[in-house]
């Protein structure tokens, strides 16, 4: 299928999943995970109706940004972020989804202050407790949110999670439900962010319908839009 056909198919699946859950699909954002895609493919996806692109690698973001590939769409950074790469993203991307520590928060705050901007972020939660994955532990989340609320250059918009790889259909429902409850709890407890914490980013190509059923407001989809990823380039 063409990129346009894949975009339309995924959008139809989102609408069906939302309807089945008694939700309005207009409240669910499709983020196209454009990892290792070309600028041409990104433009094709945006022309087909994609309104938000998600990048995993700073080097790829920089290349596409310089190529003006994102014109007409918002850009989120959805990959693991090192502090020394913050300077390339703050003030350029609409949302950094993968903030998981106070040092990273401080680095974003410092860069935002220097530029005179407020950077929207999500706090990434390691909902499955996997040592191989980034994200703050759920029990440490309230403290990190309270610290973030004190930083004038940072605005917390919600939470993000990447659950463990499911071994069977529906295998991540437990984690999605846990994240939704955490999202609701944090919105109630962190008063300063209550009016801005409106994003729950979870669900990918293999499970985004389950994520929508559990309350996701944003899903990150790559393979279902672009097919199997080509091999990673060693130089990024």
Descriptive overview:
This protein is of the alpha/beta class. It has one domain (3-224): Alanine racemase (TIM Barrel, Alpha-Beta Barrel). It contains eight helices and eight strands. The chain has an eight-stranded parallel β-sheet with strand order 7-6-5-4-3-2-1-8. Strand 1, helix 2 and strand 2 form a beta-alpha-beta unit. The mean pLDDT is 93.
Mean pLDDT: 93
Largest sheet descriptor: 8 strands, parallel
Number of helices: 8
Percentage of residues assigned to helices: 25-40%
Order of helices and strands: HEHEHEEHEHEHEHEH
Structural shape: globular
Tell me the total number of β-strands: 8
Strands of the largest sheet, in order across it?
Answer: 7-6-5-4-3-2-1-8
Overall structural domain count: 1
| The CATH C-level class name | Alpha Beta
Low-confidence stretches: none
CATH superfamily: Alanine racemase
Write the CATH fold name: TIM Barrel
Q: How much β-strand is present in the residues?
A: 15-25%
The first-to-last residue Cα distance is 27 Å
Structural class: alpha/beta
Question: What brief labels describe this structure?
Answer:
236 residues; alpha/beta; TIM Barrel; eight-stranded parallel β-sheet; 8 strands
Walk me through the topology:
Blueprint: H1 3-20, E1 29-33, H2 39-47, E2 52-55, H3 58-66, E3 74-77, E4 95-99, H4 102-115, E5 119-125, H5 141-149, E6 154-161, H6 173-189, E7 199-201, H7 208-213, E8 218-221, H8 223-226
Parallel strand pairs: 1-2, 1-8, 2-3, 3-4, 4-5, 5-6, 6-7
């Amino acid at each position: 299928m063409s990129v346009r056909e894949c975009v339309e198919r995924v959008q139809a699946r989102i609408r069906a999943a939302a309807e089945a859950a008694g939700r309005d699909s207009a409240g669910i954002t499709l983020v196209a995970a454009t990892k290792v895609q070309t600028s041409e493919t990104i433009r094709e996806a945006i022309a087909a109706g994609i309104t938000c692109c998600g990048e995993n690698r700073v080097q790829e973001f920089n290349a596409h940004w310089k190529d003006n590939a994102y014109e007409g769409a918002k850009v989120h950074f959805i990959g693991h972020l090192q502090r020394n790469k913050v300077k390339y993203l703050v003030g350029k991307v609409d949302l950094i989804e993968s903030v998981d520590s106070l040092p990273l928060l401080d680095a974003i705050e410092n860069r935002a202050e220097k530029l005179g901007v407020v950077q929207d972020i999500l706090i990434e939660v390691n909902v499955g407790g996997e040592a191989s994955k980034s994200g703050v532990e759920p029990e440490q989340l309230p403290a990190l949110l309270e610290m973030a609320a004190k930083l004038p250059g940072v605005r917390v918009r919600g939470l993000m999670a990447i659950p463990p790889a499911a071994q069977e259909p529906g295998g991540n429902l437990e984690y999605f439900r846990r994240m939704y409850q955490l999202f609701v709890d944090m919105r109630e407890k962190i008063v300063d962010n209550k009016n801005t914490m409106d994003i729950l980013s979870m669900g990918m190509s293999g499970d985004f319908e389950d994520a929508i059923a559990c309350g996701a407001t944003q899903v990150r989809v790559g393979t279902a839009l672009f097919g199997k990823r080509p091999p990673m380039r060693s130089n990024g």
